[in-house]
Amino acid sequence: MEPTPNIPQKGPYAIELEAGTYWWCACGYSQKQPFCDGSHRGRGFTPRKAYSGSP
Ligand code: FES
User: Fold this and answer.
1) How far is the CA of 26 from the centre of ligand 1 (A)?
2) Alpha-carbon Rg of the chain, whole angstroms?
3) What would the pLDDT profile of 38-53 be if each residue is shown by its tens digit?
4) What is the Cα 43 distance to its own chain's centre?
5) CA atoms within 13 A on the CB side of 28
6) Domain count, the chain
7) Does 48 fall in a domain?
8) What confidence score (pLDDT) does residue 55 get?
9) pLDDT band at residue 1, thresholds of 50, 70 and 90?
10) Has this prediction a pTM greater than 0.90?
11) Does residue 3 carry a pLDDT above 80?
């Protein structure tokens, strides 16, 4: 059975970032949207690596 993601917001997140590597939340359960806070554990999801600036 496929895990079901949570949809915390139906729209984009406007944020400012320093250049670097980030982990985007794929499960939707993070309390630090749009980034992973570890809440995916045990839910069948893994975060996705994302870059701001040059990788
Ligand atoms: S908390 Fe959602 S992928 Fe980590």
Assistant:
1) 6
2) 12
3) 999 999 999 999 999 8
4) 14
5) 9
6) 1
7) yes
8) 59
9) confident
10) no
11) yes
Residue with tokens 């997140």: 13
46 is a domain residue? yes
- Ligand 1 test: best mutation among 4, 13, 36, most atoms within 8 Å of CB? 36
For residues 31-46, one letter each, b for 16 or more C-beta atoms within 10 angstroms of the residue's C-beta and e for the rest, the string is eebbbbeebbeeeebe
- Determine, yes or no, domain membership for 40: yes
- Residue 19 has what DSSP assignment? S
In a domain, 54, yes or no: yes
What whole-number distance in Å separates Cα of residue 34 and Cα of residue 49?
A: 12
